[in-house]
Amino acid sequence: MRKNNFKMAKYMESLGYCQKKAINNENLKYGLVPWVGVNPTVLILGTLPSDDSIKSGLYYQNPTNRFWEIMHIIFGGDIDDHSKDFIISQKIALWDCFRSAQRKDSADKNIIVGTETPNDILSFLKEHPTINCIILNGTTKHPKSGYSTITAFNKYFYDLYDNYMILCLPQTSSRNERFGKTMEEKINKWSIVRKLVDEPAEVQNYR
Question: pTM of the prediction?
């Protein structure tokens, strides 16, 4: 009987199921509240904030992440300004796909599938009807384990493709630069954000 139970557990695991007690509760991570100002036009989503971000209460604080550097290259301003005031002044809102999940360290690939709780992004969008574009931070679709932003979004919010412009842009973490995504390429891709917030009426042309 024990042998059959073990085989069934391995089979369920291969399908993406797991027991929530797989790791200690100390690895249960909770994300941040959304950063949003008046009449945002673009929502940028990650998967779940890094441990550094959770600890500081600020988005994109992992030292390997170039998000703020990229934003300041695009919009100007003090490169050390990682504040809510700066990002919402660009008509950009920040949030994540998951409210919480069990995860060892900060890597999305270490999120344990089945332990995640999604954020209520649908209600958020209804509360902020000026948002017409959702940007997913990261283009990887099929991680070997855990999640990426696009796999998390597609699992829980796929219907939003019908009513919103959804863009998948290169992950702002510098880790993927080892695999051919240079900083210059990221800036070129992410520069579309400036056009989307400056000319929101042009969003339809990108669909």
Answer: 0.84
